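Kindly review this protein for my students:
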Amino acid sequence: MPAAVIQKTALPPSRRQVLIDQAPELVSEVSDRPPATLTLIVTCRSMQNAIETKEAILETHMRELKMREKNGIPERNGWLAGLRIECETADLSSPGGSDGVLALCERLKKSYPHITSLFLNAAIATASSISFPGFLKQIFTEGFVETVTDPHFVPETPGVMTPDGRLGLVFSVNVLSVYIMARELEPLLRRSPKELPVPPRIILSSSYTAARSLLRPDPLDDYQLLTYSYENGEFPYKASKYMADLLAVQLDKEFSENQGEDTQELRMLIAEPGAMVSKIYTTAFTNWAIIKFTFTFFYALAFRLASLLGSPKHVLTAGNGALAMIFAALVDSQYIEPASKVPATKFESRLNRWKHHRIEYSEVDCWESTLDLGASLMKACETIRQEYRRRESLE
């Protein structure tokens, strides 16, 4: 399924009539969405990872172009010659430093005239083991599908700090870096050319586990998640993903309210990729290659079985999961609720047992009742951002 094709399931009920009324025009328009030239900035923790990612993108791109040619689909001029992939590095656990989040943003400001789409996909978990008693308990009480969909048997090490010892690691990577990059790169995004078919957008990668119930009744007492523990049924990673969603709600509202007459409309949308085999847990358990391979094999096997048993959340591959992010970046604004009505609209990647993909519309859990909490979290993040800007002599 082309990522930009409009689907009824991806639209809020109030916008579905627009699709019915204008579907013929849209089908012809979306095929021309990608520009003839594209600069893709791949940012990873190490340059080696960035280069490997660049090579994988180019390999996939060439394979798909050859497939289009084989199927008689014309290649748009510039899809190969006009593609430029740049590599950057950043340590998202550190706001400051020569390779920290602020330094990355400063390099981007100096190197590029504008950014059209900012994808915030990085995350970290401090998982270190698997609780087999917890696994057996969940699988017998909740069943196989739920166990591999929302596992409660992966303890996370509490109290892990960033290398400089100033911040909680999971909070810094999964929450604070999202806020800093969105705030710092807002001017570049608003300078995106108005002649492009879609306005600039920030796309946050979320999680289907993100929910208000993951936070404590008074989350601000430990918003850096340092005392969250497995013994208390708490999971810092899942909680951090919900906190990032709340920041997206606040930023989307603010961007809309502060739009000037001469600046581009800027939205911050959320994409939920579903469950796929990734390195976020497999790299945490061991450095032994054979153990990683074995774990990844059974990890993938369990996800495929869950998909066959009817779980739509198991999209299996990163490519399928990314379709929600691409859709959020390319979908026409007329199909998205305005930020004044539903801030930080959420799009979800889903797959049926026959591997047919779809995008579904959703909203951040309890976003209306957590606006004050989100505002407080944003204030806390802004205080940290300003502190590090002073440390880095950026003020």
Q: What stands out?
A: The beta strands are 38-44, 83-89, 117-120, 201-205, 267-272, 275-276, 314-316, 346-351, 357-362. The longest helix spans residues 47-70. The two ends are 47 Å apart (CA to CA). Confidence is low (pLDDT under 50) at residues 23-31.
